[in-house]
Amino acid sequence: MSTALMSEEKNSHILQAITAYGKNLLSFIRRRVKTDADAEDILQDVWYQLSAVVNSEPIEQTGAWLYRVATNKITDKYRKRSETLLDDLFLDDEDDDDEGSNFKAILMTEAKTPESEYLRNLFWDQLYRALDELPQEQRQVWLWQEMEDVTFAEMAEMTGVPIQTLVSRKRYAVLHLRERLRQLYLEITQY
After folding, report:
1. CA neighbours closer than 13 Å in the CB half-sphere of residue 167
2. Would you say 142 and 177 are in contact if contact means Cβ atoms under 8 Å apart?
3. Partner of 139 for a Cys bridge, out of 1, 11, 64, 134, CB 3.0 to 4.6 A?
4. Residue 163 CB contacts under 8 Å (≥ 6 apart), including other chains
5. What string of H, E and C letters represents the secondary structure of the chain?
6. In this predicted model, what pLDDT tens digit does every residue of 120-134 receive, in sequence order?
7. Quick one: pLDDT at residue 146?
8. Which of 79, 81, 105, 101 is CA-nearest to residue 90?
């Protein structure tokens, strides 16, 4: 089979998949992420992966494959976000990277054991309790930045508060959360 014919066949398969699954797949992703921009980024990643795989291996059930890839991309996005959140809370310039990695390994393990689920639930429960202790302005800045990926510039535009003030609020929030969660961190890493 000629390369031109193979390329045309590949493009045809991709176009058929986009036509058949594009709208529903985007809706599926949108229901599972916070913003339309995130949904569109993930959908682009799915199409890119489809275009990379179409030549190398046959896909028997295109729809099932697309939804599985989309689910994996959504999971990867939240896992990456959670790892960044853990770094921000527990690693500062004086911390040892090995301790932070150990902590992340415990909380971010893919294993669904009762112990790992308990530790994850305990961490999130303690985090939300510590967040409730913060002044509303600090809590809001931290939540916007860490959980919703809102930039300081976007926050400044929304609230009319100078960027430097927002940065200070976030810093105070991080310091409080580090202090408040330090004991849990020590208990988990010595576990």
Report:
1. 4
2. yes
3. 134
4. 152, 153, 155, 156
5. CCHHHHHHHHHHHHHHHHHHHHHHHHHHHHCCCCCHHHHHHHHHHHHHHHHHHCCCCCCCCHHHHHHHHHHHHHHHHHHHHHHHHHHHHHCCCCCCHHHHHHHHHHHCCCCCCHHHHHHHHHHHHHHHHHHHHCCHHHHHHHHHHHHHCCCHHHHHHHHCCCHHHHHHHHHHHHHHHHHHHHHHHHHHHCC
6. 778 788 888 888 999
7. 81
8. 101
User: What are the tokens at 146?
Assistant: 């860490």
* The two three-digit tokens of residue 92, written as one number: 């500062």
**Residues in CB range of 6: below 8 A, 6 or more apart:** 55
CA distance readout (Å), 22 to 5, 15, 29, 43, 69: 24, 10, 11, 8, 13
